[in-house]
Amino acid sequence: MEIDPPLRQAYKDLLMHKKKNQPALPAAAAAAASEIVDECELPLIDLRPLILAGGSAEEREKCKTEMARASEEWGFFQVVNHGVSPEILDRMRREQVKAFKQPFDRKKEEDDKFSAGTYRWGTPTATCLNQLAWSEAFHIPMTDVVSSSSFDDVNGGGSFNSLRYVSVVLCFLLFSALHEGKSSFASRGGARIKWSRAGLYCIISVKKINIYIPMPPAAAVFGLMPHTDSDFLTILYQDDQVGGLQLVKDGKCFAVKPNPQALIVNIGDLFQAWSNGVYKSVEHRVVTNPHVERFSTAYFFCPSYDTEIESRCEPSIYRKFSFKEYRQQVQEDVGKLGRKVGLSRFTVNAIYS
């Protein structure tokens, strides 16, 4: 019986390796399917001194230093005592499950209530298996949530405001760490980071809820293909029972061990460019579980479209660009190449035309 959504039917040519000029099994996908991946625990940071009252100046500085170090070395870290209540997260997960259990036609109707492209499944631009995402998702812009009551409040005000607050706090701390010598960047001569207050408050944050559908590993299909995030910061609430998130560190892939008390934070492309390559936006992916579904919620913290990304550091790795320019280039590359090129296009000596 066909699953909902009809992934097997829509991508049967890719799954049967019949697409023109496609090798019998893409090398990258085959390697990923057979790869032995070690499990890791991300750096764990207690945000109590920052989010809750009563933290000493010394404790706050310790948090800031630990976040800066993790952002340099891993590009990922996890936080506990983050101020987002377990009740909000539990309710959000229940509503998420309910949203995905709707009939396929009902889920497609959400595009009429929100922005076009809110409900997505698979990868329409995929030309080979290792570009195919074996999952479905709702991409919910904050502006849509504020103006609509179609989704439960847990997918709007409560969780959005809580995650937004945490994002703002973390961004400010990581920016200040660059200035105050909490990172190796500052110790190499200091940062001249241009930051617009309007750019922070005129955010276009997006919340993405995902379901990763069971698929045998031998099929060489990712739940979410290897990528980096195109924002400043991502906060992820992942399934606390079913793993699947994997990231690359020092050229090796690691599986992230689920922590039911923690939110995962990762650096995005914009933050890497703004920090002149000090904070790392690292490649990560999701592998499917062969037996059970996996749910996750990601909150993408982005600036306004006209915000300029400029490190003001000499020598600068990246040229100045706007978030709008970056977003448009990513969309163009995905449409033409089936994949994201990303920051490589925006280096001072970029080789891409």
Automatic annotation (TrEMBL):
<dbReference type="InterPro" id="IPR026992">
    <property type="entry name" value="DIOX_N"/>
</dbReference>
<dbReference type="InterPro" id="IPR005123">
    <property type="entry name" value="Oxoglu/Fe-dep_dioxygenase_dom"/>
</dbReference>
<comment type="similarity">
    <text>Belongs to the iron/ascorbate-dependent oxidoreductase family.</text>
</comment>
<protein>
    <recommendedName>
        <fullName>Fe2OG dioxygenase domain-containing protein</fullName>
    </recommendedName>
</protein>
<dbReference type="Pfam" id="PF03171">
    <property type="entry name" value="2OG-FeII_Oxy"/>
</dbReference>
<dbReference type="GO" id="GO:0016491">
    <property type="term" value="F:oxidoreductase activity"/>
</dbReference>
<dbReference type="InterPro" id="IPR027443">
    <property type="entry name" value="IPNS-like_sf"/>
</dbReference>
<keyword id="KW-0479">Metal-binding</keyword>
<keyword id="KW-0408">Iron</keyword>
<dbReference type="Pfam" id="PF14226">
    <property type="entry name" value="DIOX_N"/>
</dbReference>
<keyword id="KW-0560">Oxidoreductase</keyword>
<feature type="domain" description="Fe2OG dioxygenase">
    <location>
        <begin position="202"/>
        <end position="303"/>
    </location>
</feature>
<dbReference type="InterPro" id="IPR044861">
    <property type="entry name" value="IPNS-like_FE2OG_OXY"/>
</dbReference>
<dbReference type="InterPro" id="IPR050231">
    <property type="entry name" value="Iron_ascorbate_oxido_reductase"/>
</dbReference>
<dbReference type="GO" id="GO:0046872">
    <property type="term" value="F:metal ion binding"/>
</dbReference>
